């Protein structure tokens, strides 16, 4: 089974051998997820942490900032510092080095870059990158199963990887989800004796009735466009200042809309400061990376984001509408 789980990934065997040797010969590891770490990044990071600890190694997850994903199983991380001098640095689910924390003293150490973004520039000394993988957690779990055997993955390790897969595939709903995705998930559930329902439930958005009513109001202020193929919702900086709410209170809004609206593109625009707009896009029809990469953003085909600097919210909407016509022929 290990060969069948990984055979479709575009990763050379020599790279996997180098990665395996690095783990076997070293003891202290630091694992780095991207800024505002989401479920896939933290699932990958903590899955790898638990795996290494199961081998008798010392491992620590070091974040840039407070993670986007909040889960009690992912609470043992540090921010912008490690408690020891690592021998090996491993980044997970990070498209570019500027999106992670990297201590200057770590320069020159072995640096493993494990990622599934097509735009990754291969910034590690060892690069395990395949942009076709539906989630980083799936790819990393399959690699560890192949290189070390399924029996080496303990319950906490399997739990973390499965959560990462569920998070990035939106519970196996994205277009990149494959038979291999389901095989890896099934292997993790069986090996870890996991309750799939409990893990899936923990990934759901949890809102108070009051906050959910505010979500409802914001969604109600949105609008359909392009013959109901696109839905826009915008939250201004003025709204945040007036209500005392923050961007974190709307975490998961893009995924919520994409799961519940029958449209081709969901657009969530958030004004973080006057003239600075964070755009979050979701689509099961178009490759959103084409648009976001044009303006220095990134992400995946079905879920991508970009920061745009415009004078007004109307300018942002006009810019996006023009790009939808230009790129996707809407």
Characteristics of this structure?
6-stranded parallel beta sheet, 330 residues, 12 helices, 12 strands, globular, Diaminopimelate Epimerase, Chain A, domain 1, alpha/beta, 2 domains, inorganic pyrophosphatase (n-terminal core)
What does this structure look like?
With 330 residues, the chain is of the alpha/beta class. It has helices spanning 2-6, 13-25, 39-54, 136-148, 155-168, 179-192, 196-202, 209-220, 237-243, 253-260, 289-294, 313-328; strands spanning 28-33, 58-63, 77-79, 88-92, 111-115, 126-129, 223-225, 230-235, 265-273, 276-282, 298-299, 303-309. Helix 3 (39-54) packs parallel to helix 4, helix 3 packs antiparallel against helix 5 and helix 5 (155-168) packs antiparallel against helix 6. It has a 6-stranded parallel β-sheet with strand order 3-2-1-4-5-6, with helices on one face. A 6-stranded mixed β-sheet has the order 7-8-9-10-12-11, sandwiched between helices. Strand 7 and strand 8 (230-235) form a beta hairpin. The model has no long low-confidence stretch (mean pLDDT 90). The longest helix is centred in the first third of the chain and has 16 residues, at 39-54. It starts with a helix and ends with a helix. The chain folds into 2 domains: 2-202, inorganic pyrophosphatase (n-terminal core); 209-328, Diaminopimelate Epimerase, Chain A, domain 1.
């Amino acid at each position: 089974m290990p060969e069948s789980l990984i055979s479709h990934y575009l990763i050379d065997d020599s790279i996997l051998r180098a990665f395996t040797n690095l783990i076997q010969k070293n003891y202290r590891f630091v694992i780095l997820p991207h800024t505002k770490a989401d479920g896939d990044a933290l699932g990958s990071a903590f899955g790898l942490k638990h795996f290494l600890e199961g081998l008798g190694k010392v491992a620590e997850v070091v974040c840039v900032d407070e993670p986007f994903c909040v889960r009690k199983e992912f609470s043992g991380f540090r921010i912008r510092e490690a408690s020891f001098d690592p021998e090996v640095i491993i980044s997970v689910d990070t498209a570019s080095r500027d999106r992670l924390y990297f201590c200057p003293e770590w320069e020159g150490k072995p640096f493993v870059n494990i990622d599934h973004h097509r735009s990754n520039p291969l910034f590690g000394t060892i690069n395990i990158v395949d942009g076709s993988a539906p989630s980083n957690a799936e790819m990393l779990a399959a690699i560890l199963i192949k290189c070390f055997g399924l029996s080496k993955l303990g319950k906490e390790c399997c739990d973390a990887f499965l959560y990462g897969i569920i998070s990035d595939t939106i519970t196996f709903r994205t277009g990149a989800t494959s038979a291999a995705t389901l095989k890896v998930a099934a292997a993790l559930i069986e090996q870890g004796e996991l309750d799939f329902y409990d893990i899936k439930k923990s990934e759901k958005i949890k809102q108070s009735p009051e906050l959910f009513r505010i979500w409802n109001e914001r969604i109600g202020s949105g609008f359909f466009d392009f013959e109901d193929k696109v839905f826009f919702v915008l939250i201004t900086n003025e709204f945040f200042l007036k209500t005392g709410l923050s961007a974190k209170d709307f975490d998961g809004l893009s995924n919520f809309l994409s799961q519940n609206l029958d449209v081709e593109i969901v657009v969530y625009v958030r004004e973080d400061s006057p003239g600075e707009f964070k755009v979050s896009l979701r689509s099961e029809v178009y490759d959103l990376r084409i648009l976001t990469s044009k303006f220095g953003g990134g992400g995946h085909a079905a879920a991508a984001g970009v920061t745009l600097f415009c004078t007004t919210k109307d300018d942002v909407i006009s810019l996006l509408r023009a790009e939808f016509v230009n790129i996707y022929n809407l």
